[in-house]
């Protein structure tokens, strides 16, 4: 398992996920119960870099099918590199399916000239601060990037509605915890908050099927 003074634990393999899951099961009976239902948790490692964040912008507030179609057109036009985005017009970006707002976000991301390799060794809070300076990149997107593109083991995304609902169901809470409350709740799952998120997402899918949540 990778580890660094600045970045903390990183998740590189299924064994890392399993180590985190074992820790959570040992400290919390509810987490142990959830794991009994979900089985082994997915690794879910994504590439890092410009294209991954551009894809996140494309996916905002549209269906998976629509996002995939737009992304295919972006790739076909060669618009998945920052240099190309900077070089083309907003009309060119809109022609491949981006809304006016998303074209602006894509350009802002390209013009930010983020040093993506440097993010790999920066503290998570600095990664999130850097990314959220870009219009169109919110805290949730930055946390997901840190979690799955950089493999940070101790990141959580308490603004995620599925995580909030999963926590409500698993811990039998009277109502869905708000972002601030869930962030505080997640502190107990450190240093494996990213694995706790994987577990809650997996548990949510099972609970949704079982209880008919829509």
What do you see in this structure?
This protein has 13 helices and two strands, in the order ββααααααααααααα. The chain has helices at 14-27, 29-38, 50-59, 64-77, 82-87, 90-95, 100-112, 116-119, 124-131, 139-149, 161-170, 179-186, 193-211; strands spanning 3-4, 8-9. The protein has a two-stranded antiparallel sheet with strand order 1-2. β1 and β2 form a beta hairpin. α1 packs across α2 (29-38), α3 runs antiparallel to α7 (100-112) and α11 (161-170) crosses α13. The mean pLDDT is 94.
Search tags:
214 residues; mainly alpha; Endonuclease Iii, domain 2; Endonuclease III, domain 1; 2 domains; two-stranded antiparallel sheet; 2% strand
- CATH topology category name of the largest domain: Endonuclease Iii, domain 2
Mean pLDDT: 94
What is the molecular shape? globular
Helical residues, percent:
55-70%
Could you describe the largest sheet, including whether it forms a barrel? 2 strands, antiparallel
Q: Which residues form runs of ≥5 with pLDDT under 50?
A: none
What is the CATH class of the largest domain? Mainly Alpha
What is the string of SSEs from the N terminus onward? EEHHHHHHHHHHHHH
Strand order of the largest sheet: 1-2
Structural class: mainly alpha
Please tell me the total number of domains. 2
Tally of helical segments: 13
User: Cα-atom Rg, whole angstroms?
Assistant: 18 Å
Percent range for β-strand residues:
under 5%
Count of β-strands: 2
Distance between the termini: 38 Å
Please tell me the CATH architecture of the largest domain by its name. Orthogonal Bundle
